[in-house]
Structures are given as structure tokens and as C-alpha cells.
Amino acid sequence: MPISIRSLTADECQALLSAHRVGRLAYAYKQRVDIEPLHYVADGEWLYLRTAHGTKLSMLLHQPWVALEVDEVHGMFDWQSVVVHGSVQLLDPSEGVDSRALWDHAVATFRRIVPQAFAAGDPTPNRDVMLRVHMSHVEGRQAAEAND
């Protein structure tokens, strides 16, 4: 049976991003592109990400352009994928009232999926760094059996 590959609409891309919580973040690192999974929450034009202090964080602060890919695979020719391009911003609640309000919003957004996030009982307490990515460019594709 023939396979159809098509672009997803903006609404379909947003639906896939909203339905999942783990994506793969690609970023520049030492003359190469690195990629690793991490938790995220989609909220309007922003993705909120949790990570820990380390090499990835220092690289992202110096080279903020990233891509985040989220997919849903049911079979070799039955999948959807969305790629978000944007720049990373570190959320630091100690940088003033506006920064604190943004941090509080990000924490509340994460708590919709993990109620204990950033509190007692947090399943990933070492991931105490919050980032956000503005979804500057979003595109998606889907493969499926073509209907005759």
C-alpha cells in the first residue's frame, strides 16, 4: 500500500506538543550537535524545560539556538513528528519581580503534569534549573498509509 507523507497544520503540531512530555533537545556542543531527552511542557508560544546544572546548561547559555523534536511512532510508516526551533532563556527567580513571576508561572505550568515539581516529593529534585524556549519556528510531518 502506498505511503503518504504530509506536513502537519499548526493546530496538529500544537496538539502533538501538548500531548507529550518528553522531547529530544538538540544543541551545539564542541563543534558538533548533541541531542538528549528531557521533560518539557508546552504553554502558548513557549516550551518550559527542566534540567540540572552541568555542561549542557553552560553550552545553552553561550549558544542559545536549539531544536526540540517530539514524535509519536506507531510503526515504520505510521508516525508524526514535530520540530521546534528557538532560543533558550534561563529562568532565574532571583533576578527581580518580573523574573520571579515568570519562574512562578513556569513552576505552576510544570505542576499541571507533576504536582510535586519543585517541592517536597519531587521525583527529579536535582533538575532544579528551569529554561524556556520561544517557539520561533514549528513544523511537523506525518507518515501514514495513503487512502485510495
Describe the structure.
The structure is a single chain. This protein has 148 residues and is an alpha+beta fold. The protein has 3 helices and 8 strands; from the N terminus they run E-H-E-E-E-H-E-E-H-E-E. A 6-stranded antiparallel β-barrel has the order 2-3-4-7-6-5. The chain has a single domain, classed as Pnp Oxidase, Chain A. Strand 2 and strand 3 form a beta hairpin. The termini are close together.
Note the overall shape. Answer: globular
* Name of the CATH class: Mainly Beta
The helicity comes to 10-25%
Query: What's the assembly state of these chains?
Result: single chain
User: Which CATH architecture?
Assistant: Roll
What is the CA–CA distance across the termini?
9 Å
Residue fraction in strands: over 45%
| Largest β-sheet summary | 6 strands, antiparallel, barrel
Structure class:
alpha+beta
What is Rg? 17 Å
Biggest β-sheet: strands ordered side by side in the sheet = 2-3-4-7-6-5
Topology:
Blueprint: E1 3-7, H1 10-19, E2 22-29, E3 32-43, E4 46-51, H2 55-62, E5 65-75, E6 78-91, H3 97-111, E7 129-134, E8 137-145
Antiparallel strand pairs: 1-8, 2-3, 2-5, 3-4, 4-7, 5-6, 6-7, 6-8
